[in-house]
Amino acid sequence: MPHKLMMVLAAVGLMGAGQMPSLAPADVRPVGNIAVSAETYSGRAALRADDLGPPNGQVEKLVRLPGLEFGDGEIELWVAGSPAGGAVAGARGFVGVAFRLSGDSTTGEVFYIRPTNGRADDQERRNHAVQYISAPDWPWERTRRETPSRYEAYADMEPGRWTRMRVVVSGDKARLFLDGATQPVLIVNDLKGGAARKGGVALWIGPGTTARFADVRIHP
Length: 220
Hints:
Jelly Rolls, mainly beta
């Protein structure tokens, strides 16, 4: 019997809040050059996504979740990211979640983490452990160049370790909470897509990464 990723969808017209259908690799839609499979990882039934190489960009590697239009609400999930075998030295195990995605997956908002930065012996790298970007106009290179430190933050994390992410979205504001903390690790008061944008939700994978995802819960 295949492993399943547990997911709660509380969208009007999709299914009632509190139900927990199982989500298998066949239920999701990979975007880009990735391989998706199911496994048990560190005690959790997980969906695994492996980056298979270029092209890489803001939203070129996604696992889109089915049948959901998300505007405001909360997204909770567990993620574990680590550099893939043979990845370049700059690989960080990038892993996160994208939301308000357009149907063609070219525009949307993203929160992600860089797990190898969390305990790096370099303060500048630690300061870049958590990231917000907005596709296509606001990649991390632009935000870091034009508004240094505004859309990045430090958080304790380790590659390959399960990390709980909770994203709270309201209008043009979003908050990212990690590992059950009551205070956000990153605050965004000006989502670049604007307050009214709605769209899909996807699991996000960065270059050179092996990522796992579990227990996705979406509360529009």
